[in-house]
Amino acid sequence: MMLDAVSTGYLIDPHCVVARPLRVHSSFQHVLNLTDDAGGWLTLLPASAHNQPRAIRVDVPDALDWRRMAAHGMPVTWFGPMLLGPNWGVRLHQAPIWQPRFPQWLASQRAALSDLAHGIALDLLASVIRDAMHMAPAPTALQRWDAAIHAAAPLDADAAHALIGRGQGLTPDGDDYLIGYLAALEIDEATSGAADHANAIRQAIAAHLHRTTRISGNYLQQAVTGHFSESIDDLRCAVLRQAEPVAIRRAAASVIAHGATSGLSTARGFLHGLRLFAASPQPA
Amino acid sequence: MDIPHRIFRNLYQDSVSLMQLSSQIAKLDGIAQASVVMGTPANLTQLADAGLGTSFDAGPNDLIIVVRGEASACEAALALAHERLTSRPDSSDNTVQAVVPASIAMAHEQAPDANLALISVPGDYAAAEAIKALMLDMNVMLFSDNVPLDQEREIKQLARRRNRLVMGPDCGTAIINGMPLGFANVVTRGAIGVVAASGTGLQEVTCRIDQLGHGISQALGTGGHDLHEEIGGISMLHGLQALIDDADTRVIVLISKPPALPVAEAILALAGRAGKPVVVHFLGADPYEGAAANLTFAGTLADAAQAAVAAIDDLSAPTPAVQLTPETAAMLDTLCEALPTARTDIRGVFAGGTFCFEAQLICQRAGFTASSNTPVTGNLALTDLWHGSGHTLVDMGDDAYTRGRPHPMIDPTLRDARIVDDLADPTTAVVLFDLVLGYGAAEAPAEALAQLLRQARASTVAPPLLVAHVCGTESDPQVRSHQMRILRDAGVLVAGCNAEAAVWASHIAQHQARALTGYNLGQ
């Protein structure tokens, strides 16, 4: 079966002709994780998913199930702009490369968010999260950090240590929370004293990636090095460019919609990070 | 209350499924508490804090299911979890079958709609397997070589009786309904059909058509012996008729070395009745008198592609594929100024047999008699397989070089070494070679060679010129322009097609001959 990629993440070289061989790490109905001997990671996502820095979005038929087609350990080969498994392949050569917009936005927005805009964003995020928590079970693993959100207290290394690998799901809630937190810190990092704190948290996370699942560790590793998903990129851009409230709500809802509780945990972490450096901390 | 648990090693289930499972277990009668988490240190601590256990032999990538409740309920809950987590998805029509068939018959049972068998077994067994496939009403692509001629005839006569196509023996290239088979390139689908008794000939023509912005309906290989008198062109005739009957094919291209005369007559007669344009290229053949009006005879592989495209575009005359412009000639002459007069020889090193054949013909027309392991009429047989002497053009894909070794398209090591050897020869003026891309070919053919070329040229005084062409497309895994760029960066003159490369090499040799003798050759 030959499939076509609809986009590739910017950390993937579609003309990679000197790549290490890959193997299937884990397969889900429409998602396939590949890894190489050096710990490299690559995910195949359905076209309906948001872009990721190390993912290829693939136009898969509804009936396709990677669990039937790609068993753990199955070798997968880079063959120029194609990924080839034993009985399937993905063509990349026509696929556009997704690039996040946030770095460009950050460079062009020299002035910090105005207090008002910052406050509006916080209100909107908090509102969207509250609505989501009414509708879905809240990750209990994160309850003890709710107070920190309320108080706009920064996480410390111990907190980061405790969050890694904590909670339910293949990407534990604590990891998702940290990803959202890091993503928000970058908004203020260039214009306030957030840089030292952000670096400290990154180092704390990077030192303990072994404490979580391989899959989640991959996403944490990306976050630590400044790489985030398309939905997070959209949210950051919406906040940074002081978009209309409906746009911020939509971007936040898009983040929350990811996974079972992953998105909600990510959004909560994002809210926490954003709250830290608001000039006027807003009530939750 | 019991608190049993179960650990599933390296089990990855999506979070939604895990949540559903957790919820389902927790609701079972007799279950007071259930936890479904990955065995991360943080979660193990949480389990301990929740009184669900302290000694789990699990790592972050293991799934732990812990339940607290009545013993029987816990057992049922864990059994349910095991069943949910370890059951495979339901089969459906597009599943990969778990049972690997051990015969053509078994495979046909599992895939009764399959109508093509691709057979690659040692030559001694190939005929029997091909016959089995034909008896199951399948067409055959026979990759196997070393099939005796009488067996080939038997297979093809059976195929003719059953109205089936046999591509081969020794057919390594085909494109069927857009699917490349064997050594083949990724080309656009279109309205030009090709039947070829030459693998690299088929590749060159289909790639050229793709480069010209058109596409291929079907590309059928016949194997190299099909047009011998003993075989009678059975496969080419069948393939030609199939393309005549195919509504999606508007122009047909036929490629072969010169067939036996009766075979050529039969093929041209059928082609003349095709009712659509047919481009014929029998490499090195004399012109055919009295051919039908819908036939166009091409002079090179690339010209065959040009003619096919011109026919599709309803142009009266195709653009010549190879034109040695004054500018190009001047450029080559300038480069030759750096060559010592002792450098006079053309050394051709080819992975594609047909490219070697075509290059010999072109160099011969330019006045050069060469030695080869596959000499064209008028050229000489090699006396030394491993070292060139005088003008030498070798087909490295021939049996002489591939016995016990992969074909140079797959593993170019021996080919690369031959190129380096020729570069070191003080009589070599130009090294001419091909790079064939596509499925089955080496992943990165230019990279390793480019490095060798740089090293060899750096250690050689006034090194020979390098001329090459890359047979492939932009859609090939290796990406044609990428390979061309690497070669150019390594100092190789990259021509647009095999014929052009041979013309350039001939021009260089002519320049050197003039410089040495004062005479013009071949003019």
Report what the structure shows.
The complex is a heterodimer of chains A (284) and B (523). With 284 residues, chain A is an alpha/beta fold. Chain A is built from 11 helices and 9 strands. Chain A has an 8-stranded mixed barrel. In chain A, a hairpin with a 3-residue loop joins strand 6 and strand 7. Chain B has 523 residues and is an alpha/beta fold. In chain B, 39% of the residues lie in helices and 19% in strands. Chain B is built from 17 helices and 20 strands. A 5-stranded parallel sheet of chain B has the order 10-9-11-12-13, with helices on both faces. In chain B, strands 17-14-18-19-20 form a 5-stranded parallel sheet, with helices on both faces. A 3-stranded antiparallel sheet of chain B has the order 1-3-2. Classes of the chains: A alpha/beta (284), B alpha/beta (523). Chain A binds chain B through residues 1, 15, 17-18, 25-29, 31, 33, 61, 63-65, 67-69, 72, 79-82, 87, 93, 141, 162-172, 174, 210-215, 217, 259-262, and chain B through 10, 12-16, 18-19, 22, 36-38, 40-43, 46, 60-61, 88-89, 91-96, 443-444, 447, 474-479, 482.
Please tag this protein with its features.
heterodimer; A: 284 residues; 44% helix; globular; B: 523 residues; alpha/beta; 5-stranded parallel β-sheet; 17 helices
Q: Order the strands across the largest sheet of chain A as they lie in space.
A: 1-5-4-3-2-6-7-8
Output the structural class of chain A: alpha/beta
Distance between the termini of chain B: 102 Å
| Computed Rg of chain B | 31 Å
How would the blueprint of this fold be written?
The complex is a heterodimer of chains A (284) and B (523).
Chain A: E1 2-9, E2 22-27, E3 32-36, E4 41-46, E5 55-59, H1 66-69, E6 75-78, E7 82-84, E8 89-91, E9 97-98, H2 102-108, H3 115-135, H4 146-151, H5 157-163, H6 173-189, H7 194-206, H8 214-224, H9 230-240, H10 245-256, H11 262-276
Parallel strand pairs in A: 1-8, 1-9, 4-5
Antiparallel strand pairs in A: 1-5, 2-3, 2-6, 3-4, 6-7, 7-8
Chain B: E1 5-8, H1 15-26, E2 31-38, H2 41-49, E3 63-69, H3 71-86, H4 104-110, E4 116-119, H5 123-135, E5 139-142, H6 149-161, E6 166-167, E7 173-176, E8 179-182, E9 189-196, H7 199-211, E10 216-221, H8 234-245, E11 251-256, H9 261-272, E12 278-282, E13 295-297, H10 301-312, H11 326-336, E14 345-350, H12 353-365, E15 371-372, E16 380-381, E17 392-395, H13 399-402, H14 413-424, E18 428-436, H15 445-458, E19 465-471, H16 480-489, E20 493-495, H17 498-517
Parallel strand pairs in B: 4-5, 5-6, 9-10, 9-11, 11-12, 12-13, 14-17, 14-18, 15-16, 18-19, 19-20
Antiparallel strand pairs in B: 1-3, 2-3, 7-8
